[in-house]
Amino acid sequence: MSTPRSETTFYPAIEQSERLGNWSGKNVPRKEDKRLLKGQGAFVDDLWMHRQGHVHFVRSPYAHARITAIDVARCEAVPGVYATLTGEEVGELQQPYFQMAPEPAGAMKDYCMAVGKARYMGEPVAAVLAESAELARDAAELIEVSYEPLPVVVDGIATIEPDAPVLHEEIGSNVGWHGTYDYGDIDWAIENADHVVRIDRLHFHRFSSTPLETSGALVNWDPGTGVVEFRTNNQMPMFAAMFIGPAIGLGIDHMQFSSQDIGGGFGIKITSYTYLTALALLSRKAGRPVKWSESRWEHLAASAHGNERTFLDIEVPVMNDGTILGFKVRAFDDAGAYLRYEPLGAVIWAQVVPGNYRFKHVRVDYTESLTNKCPVGPNRGYSRLQHLWMIERLVDIVANELGFDRVALRKLNYVQPEEFPYETPNGCIYDSGDYPAMLDRALELIDYEGALARQRASARSGRRIGIGIGSTLDSGTNNFGQSRIINSALPFSGNGEAAIVRLDLYGEVTVTIGTSPQGQGHETTAAQVTADILGMSPDQVHVAAGYNKAANTYVGFSGTYASQFAVTGLGAVMGAAEKLRGEIIKVGACMLGSEESDIELADGFVRLAANPEAAIPFIGIAATVFANVAELPGELADSVTLNCRYVYRPPFEVPDHETKTGKLTLTYASQVHAAVVEVDDETGQVTILDYAAVDECGRKVNPMIVEGQVHGATGHGVGAALYESFEYDADGQLLNSTFADYHAATSLDVPHIRTGDIECPSPFTPNGAKGMGEGGGAPLSTIASAIEDALPDGAHIVFDTHNNSERVYELLRSAAAAGPRGVEVISR
Amino acid sequence: MIVSGSRTVAAPRDALWAVLSDPARLAETLPGVGDVSIEDEHRFSAVAHPVTALGATRVAMDFEIVEQRPSEHVRISGLGSAGENQLQLTVALDLAADGEGTAVSWSADVQLRGVWRSLLQRGLGSLFNEQVDAVLAAGALLSGASNER
Predict the structure, then answer these.
(1) Is B45's Cβ below 8 Å from some Cβ in A?
(2) How far is it, in rounded angstroms, from Cα A776 to Cα A686?
(3) Which of A36, A422, A718, B87 is the most exposed place for a label (fewest CB within 10 A)?
């Protein structure tokens, strides 16, 4: 068992800023909202360039088919059609994308459009550029594509069988990655446990995010300069550049990315680089800017889906007192037709190996498989929520099978508050937390005792009331070195973000960051910390909206993803603001004829702490440095720029490839949710009666923004649990590719959420904050737990994340029929 | 998806058969279909403009009469596409004399691909049966008889 240690055991000591607090931690209204609420935001479809054409992609109706011919002649003859692009051309113009998987899957040839054959329904096979979007769409129907249908595989487990149709012949199988993670001694634990609970199968379903703004871009390949401008809502542009550049022979210096407002990302806009590549090629061919706005059905069918994962042969060793020793499982993750961001998911889950618990012995045999379905992307809570849901399921099942109280069992097995920082079996360090207190708070918010009484009373009246609990982690600030656990040859490690804070000629403070926000309020929170450090109001701080590679600073990991802005983004802003503060004080001390130690910054002035009347406004400092510099001593003039760049770098080392251990993530925000549901016995409909979400994300920079993200993540999770699921038929046809069938949760579907919070500052970050916003997994666990609790006494387990009315109806019927339960207990 | 149905048409079986087994006349019975092109006695193509939730969509269809027993049975296959959507069907019609009229039963295997698979899956059965009804009604008229259920 891990023992409490000081934080210096795990990371170098970090000095946390003492200047935060005047504005940080306050509900400062979002600066962005002034334009967004007035319809003055600038999204991709608002953009326009002279001579631009509009793009429509022709997509494969088959999930798996050889493309025997594409005839674009009739399409190109239509007046107003500027150009077409086919997969065959792409095969000549593009090198296959770099793959993160090792051989053999690393040999996969992935292009921006189908080359030779299509591997999922909706895969682009050709593109049309025309003077209007409508003309492009109509003209696209004149492109004749001849297909030779091939056998289809959509099952993430059956696909690795020897007789399954192979998607990528160059790989030779449908295995994208396989490896075993083995921590502690699970064989010993199973052999020596008082009980072993065996669960045949659990399934985490396929769903996605439905951002208000779908993917899109306005791309111009300038024939004069050779610079390609990407105005796009891709949420990790420098990652996209790493794929696009080598594929079409562009240096980073010839790629300009920018965005202002992005209407949601949730991770799935990271992999839009394939479309950006196609748009760049089409722009070069046509010699004009090209614009593409993804339709909703394109987004649902062919953007990116979240990972579907099936867990088989789970074994959980448990002691008589309820101590759970760990678990073993075979996990099959269905990546869809291409690896795009995968197989990173094959290691990302390992950031949270034991979940919120003190499990010491874990073995996960992990297979990333390929099927004829839409490729996956790093959807909210990427790879961890699948694993965390499985853990919460097995805790509930252990409680039910062995007769433990679910609350008590959790509290017994949770990592205890005094054990933080806590080292997991694979070497990750949970920074801080208090899970038992969070659970108490969640239960208090749903009036747990009252809910139990309602449950007992309802049983007598024939109603089915269930109470559920879900505990999850939101690990933030990745160590990209974990990618070497899946492929030791990958040249990635650490993480970082960059920012510039500068004082301009008239005393303006401007902040630019390498991030590409999609609604997280970066302009506001960056202004708050800058204002604290420079002694001014957030209103006086201008944070450049969005991302612009030419104007902003950046590093290779720049972007907005994986719950890290509060640490990396604000860490960079704080560092840059501190540098600027130092320069301002240096110049101010010189101008006031005092020592730097006598100076303070307040209200936009440099002044003597002992005599506030002796003050120089920032404009005076800036005007002197920029326009009256001969007044300053030469040495001082040469040492200040008032234009300060800082790169925040988390203190990571490279994880160990052989043992698959290391510090994979810096911070661990957590969520404990609780819910009371009613299940209709006749229809299987689930109604959420009460819902509580307790969040812990360290020191909050803006509690209002945090609460907004808690609401959003919870709504997303509720939607996935009850409404949202991508369903394919055996031919690989997506059965719900419009909002008529894929029901994204709305405010009418999401219950009133009682929120609570606990603050456990991270000792490892410069502001005590933790990344957050990906806690969408908690409702999946909570609602599954509540539904199971509502079913007839222990009759059946909830084995799936998605429990719409039909599935719950089937569960009720199968429970009544006393069918196979899929659970076995061996006691010694 | 398998769609089936039956009805009685007030037209003599031989007269109805003469319409259904002749590509040129059969094409005339298909509702919303134009630009008919007869390739030979078994094959023809046509352009349909069905109205779906996406609006009126142009669908280029190729049909082939793949099996027939005079006055008794005909099986027709069709493949059509509209952009990223595809419709593939095989429909079998069986005719039997029923007094002065003809009892017709049909069974079709219809496959939709693309967004149509999502949009039309629930309404396909009734939509297809309406189409068959319209074909038989038109066929009865072309055969010189009125038709009724």
Answers:
(1) no
(2) 19
(3) A36
Task: Say how far apart CA A412 and CA A747 lie, in whole Å.
Answer: 36
A60 vs B contacts (CB less than 8 Å): 84
Nearest chain B CA: its distance from A742 CA (Å): 9
**The predicted structure's pLDDT at residue A535:** 96
Hey, are the CB atoms on B118 and A121 less than 8 Å from each other? no
Cβ distance of A740 and B117 shorter than 8 Å: no
Residue B53: its pLDDT value, please? 62
Structure tokens at A373: 């379905």
B-chain residues within 8 Å CB-CB of A61? 81, 84-86, 113-114
CA dist B105 and B99 (Å) reads 16
Order of strands, sheet of A599-602, starting from the edge strand that comes earlier in the sequence: A599-602, A605-608, A611-617
Check A122 against B118: CB less than 8 A apart: no
DSSP code, position A651: -
Burial class (CB in 10 A: 0-12, 13-18, 19+), A96: middle
Which domain covers residue B100, as residue numbers? 2-142
Give dist(CA A634, CA A614) in Å, integer.
Answer: 24
**Which single residue is written with the structure tokens 């149905």?**
B5
| Nearest alpha carbon to residue A764 among A25, A23, A5 | A5
B85 has a chain A CB within 8 A of its CB: yes
User: Which CATH number is B119's domain given?
Assistant: 3.30.530.20
Its ipTM equals 0.86
Is the Cα dihedral A395, A397, A401, A407 positive or negative? positive
Strand, helix or coil for residue A442? helix
What single string gives the DSSP state of each residue in A432-489?
---HHHHHHHHHHHTTHHHHHHHHHHHHHHT-EEEEEEEEEEEEEEE-GGGHHHH-TT
- Measured in angstroms, the CA of B62 and the nearest CA of chain A are apart by 13
Pick from A58, A84, A121 the residue to mutate for testing the B interface (most B CBs within 10 Å): A121
Q: Which pLDDT score, from 0 to 100, does residue B118 have?
A: 87
* B82 occurs within a structural domain: yes
Structure tokens at A318: 């448990």
Q: Report yes or no: B105 at the A interface, CB cutoff 8 Å.
A: no
pLDDT at A775: 78
Q: Which two tokens stand for residue A32?
A: 């962005």
Q: Which residues of B touch A140 (CB under 8 A)?
A: 83
Give the minimum alpha-carbon distance from B74 to chain A in angstroms, rounded to a whole number. Answer: 26
B52: pLDDT confidence band, cut at 50, 70 and 90? low
Triad A132, A133, A137: Cα angle to 5°: 120
CB of B112 within 8 Å of a chain A CB? The answer is yes
> In this structure, what are the phi and psi dihedrals at residue A80, rounded to the nearest 5 degrees?
100, -10
Distances (CA, A) of A352 to A179, A203, A395, A514: 17, 18, 15, 27
Q: Partners of A117 in the beta sheet?
A: A66
Enumerate domains of chain A plus CATH numbers. Answer: 44-150+215-293 (3.90.1170.50), 179-208+304-481+655-827 (3.30.365.10), 496-648 (3.30.365.10)
Model confidence, pTM: 0.94
DSSP string, A340-369: TTTTTHHHHGGGGTTTTB---EEEEEEEEE
A561: tokens are 């993803």
pLDDT tens digits, residue range B12-22? 999 999 888 88
**B47 touches A: beta carbon within 8 Å:** no
The residue ranges of chain A whose pLDDT is under 70 are: 1-9, 794, 815-820
Strand residues in A447-522 grouped as ranges (E): 464-478, 497-503, 509-513
Please give the DSSP secondary-structure letter assigned to residue A373. Answer: S
First-to-final CA distance of chain B = 25
How far is residue A286 from each of residues A58, A88, A130, A692, measured CA to CA in Å?
18, 17, 10, 54
- Cβ separation of B83 and A122 shorter than 8 Å? no
| Residue B149 forms part of a structural domain | no
pLDDT beyond 70 at B115: yes
| Residue A221 structure tokens | 């390949």
Give me the number of domains chain B comprises. 1
